[in-house]
Design goal:
five-stranded mixed β-sheet; globular
Length: about 140
């Protein structure tokens, strides 16, 4: 990782940097959410070699798939296609309110477009229309 990337992550735009990397990531032979988590962890670990990446981060009531540099939570959802999965994710995001960092939600596999739209609406509402993108949704 170059000096500019270190500065970008640490002081300027950690979520933008991680979301760019997630968009570059091309997992292979992944079938489960856990497979995607392992693949993304390995990819980010190689690309962000100087940044601490924690799998299955837990603090208080917060539980996240990945924590990148104590600044960005990454939550992976595979086949986001049922109301139950949507409600569970909304519950997780609600728990993240007490956390100061940014959240990237990565939707893998089959995603119901209506549930994605509801998720986007919820994220926008949570951000309060302040122009701050605290929740980033990426569909792969």
């Amino acid at each position: 990782m170059g000096v500019f990337d270190k500065i970008r992550f640490k002081f300027w735009d950690p979520a933008g940097m991680v979301s760019s990397l997630v968009k570059e990531w091309h997992p292979v032979r992944c079938k489960t959410e856990k497979d995607y988590e392992k693949s993304l962890y390995s990819f980010l670990h190689k690309r962000l070699e100087d940044i601490q990446i924690t799998k299955q981060y837990a603090r208080g009531r917060i539980r996240a798939d990945l924590l990148v540099g104590d600044k960005v939570i990454v939550e992976i959802k595979n086949n986001f296609n049922t109301t139950t999965k949507h409600q569970r994710l909304i519950g997780q995001i609600t728990e993240y309110k007490e956390w100061e960092g940014e959240i990237i939600i990565v939707l893998m596999g089959k995603t119901d477009p209506n549930l994605r739209k509801e998720l986007e609406n919820y994220a926008e509402k949570e951000e309060g229309g302040l122009g701050e993108e605290r929740i980033i949704i990426i569909q792969k």
